[in-house]
Design a protein that fits this description.
heterodimer; A: mainly alpha; globular; B: mainly alpha; 11 helices
Chain lengths: 250, 264
């Protein structure tokens, strides 16, 4: 399935090149903006230049990986509206798996590599990075993927129930965009909402803070619990949605 | 003229048909404002200044560009390319209607709705966040801000239309638009005031049309430009508007020559 979607993405070379350039430009422009700002302020919300770059690169890593693997979700509405989703249900493959991971987007690969490169460079530039910090970072990155996966499951479950998906998906994207920089820049109660109610902070900020040694072990445990609960809740929601699927459009 | 007024009104009514879409679109706009607002609030504490902006002028810049972008950047004419590709353009070529004015009327209907919602949202944000805003009271600056916004929305209309005209030659109308939006977000000054950039880069930006879409009108409002700078800016806007108009007309005529009503 991924090979097929890769062939489709590359079938129009002009569009493929433009999309890749666009994504790289978006990264470069925001990076340039951060350089300009920090050249004057030295810090943002108390974080040094390389720490801010590390937050930004980690955000891009999580965001891009989610898009790379779960691009099919963006096409899910058309499957439900056209009735094609019925075929997903009749095949010997989990419809949830097919819906989430049925079409990876190869065009996100350059961005993924760039994000990883920036993560590595920022880690090298930052001082006092411990082995435990790196380990917690990796664990919380996996947790962030789990939260991202949960959001996508909730979005497709909503799509099954209402055939409406685009707005929910873009809302998720905008909310996660608020994690491009450490959520410490937001004031309360917004910071609390972004940490616990809509766990953008746990997803995007916590991994980086853990690596910097700025996260307590209690926060790590709470983050993992929230990740697991969200995943379980989203899976239950999917099961509920699929039971109520009426196949009305086919 | 009545028919174009009807088109604008129909676009307005159409927005109410897809209410959820519109509300979600506006919620997304609020989230984007909040991100920038809190970033700049963190960067410029009360009493401090950065790049020549104090907290009040920077937050006015951020909230002001949000209002101006709801006027300038909201549009429906992004669908021109799809109309050409689907062959629907033929319907308009056969009718006694000016295709440019039709889409401009659609844009006006969309802008009216976005402006109203944007004002409501900013009022709510103002009540909740109580930002220290700069209020311009001089009618001279307000009038020139209005003039700059009118030029900006006409320029943006031509940009949008021009991107749609790619549809005459290629079905891939969304990829160029994607890169245009990314360039626009950076070059128009929606993320930050362009004059915080190094002088050389800023002077290059000043010759580009993007600068006059968001940055220029809000800078007039803030009273941070001299009379000479304002009139120079308006002249550059005027020249770009004319240049874009000529390009759009030329490309439109060339496009019609190759149009085959494919898809019909």
């Amino acid at each position: 399935m991924s090979a097929r979607s890769t062939q489709i993405a590359l079938s129009s070379r002009f569009s493929a090149v433009i999309f890749v350039i666009g994504k790289l430009l978006r990264f470069a422009f925001f990076f340039f903006f951060l350089v300009i700002v920090i050249s004057k302020t030295n810090t943002i919300a108390g974080y040094s230049f390389w720490q801010v770059i590390f937050f930004f690169a980690t955000f891009n890593l999580i965001d891009t990986a989610a898009q790379l693997f779960m691009r099919e979700v963006y096409r899910f509405r058309s499957y439900v509206v056209s009735g094609e989703f019925d075929y997903f249900l009749s095949k010997p493959l989990s419809p949830l798996f097919r819906t989430l991971l049925g079409g990876s987007d190869i065009l996100d690969l350059p961005m993924l590599f760039l994000s990883i490169a920036f993560v590595v460079v920022a880690v090298v530039q930052m001082e006092a990075v411990s082995f435990v910090g790196v380990l917690l970072y990796l664990v919380l990155i996996v947790n962030a993927f789990l939260i991202g996966l949960s959001f996508h499951i909730m979005v497709v479950a909503l799509g099954v129930l209402t055939t409406e998906i685009d707005n929910a998906l873009w809302m998720y994207r905008d909310l996660t965009q608020m994690g491009r920089l450490p959520i410490d820049i937001y004031r309360q109660p917004l910071q609390g909402i972004l940490t616990f109610a809509i766990p953008v902070g746990i997803m995007m900020t916590f991994p980086s803070k853990a690596l910097m040694g700025l996260l307590s072990i209690q926060s790590v445990v709470i983050a993992l619990l929230i990740g697991i609960i969200l995943f379980y809740g989203s899976f239950k929601f999917w099961q509920h949605a699929i039971k109520h699927y009426s196949s009305a459009s086919s | 003229m009545n028919k174009y007024f009807s088109v604008a009104r129909l676009t307005w009514d159409e927005t109410f048909v897809y209410r959820l879409n519109f509300v979600m679109w506006r919620v997304r706009a609020v989230l984007q404002i909040l991100t920038l607002y809190f970033l700049w609030l963190a960067l410029i504490p009360t009493g401090a200044s950065l790049f020549g902006y104090d907290q009040s002028s920077m937050l006015t810049y951020i909230l002001g560009t949000s209002l101006i972008s709801s006027i300038v950047l909201s549009s429906r004419s992004y669908a021109v390319g799809d109309e050409i590709n689907s062959g629907n353009l033929s319907n308009f070529l056969l009718r006694p209607i000016n295709y440019f004015l039709y889409w401009f009327a659609r844009d006006v209907g969309d802008k009216a709705m976005n402006i109203i919602f944007s004002i409501i949202e900013l009022t709510v944000l103002f009540v909740i966040l109580k930002p220290p805003l700069f209020i311009q009271t001089e009618s001279f600056y307000l009038l020139l801000t209005f003039v700059a916004i009118v030029f900006a929305l006409i320029m943006y209309f031509f940009f949008n239309f021009l991107l749609g005209l790619i549809g005459f030659w290629s079905p891939e109308v969304w990829a160029p638009r994607f890169i245009f939006i990314i360039l626009l977000n950076f070059f128009a000054g929606g993320l930050f005031p362009l004059d915080i950039l190094p002088k050389f880069i800023f002077s290059v930006f000043q010759s580009l049309p993007f600068t006059y879409l968001l940055y220029f009108p809000i800078k007039i409002y803030l009273g941070q430009l001299t009379i000479i700078e304002i009139f120079t800016g308006i002249m550059i806007s005027l020249v770009w508007t004319l240049v874009l108009y000529i390009i759009v007309q030329y490309v439109w005529r060339k496009g019609l020559l190759v149009y085959t009503a494919q898809g019909r």
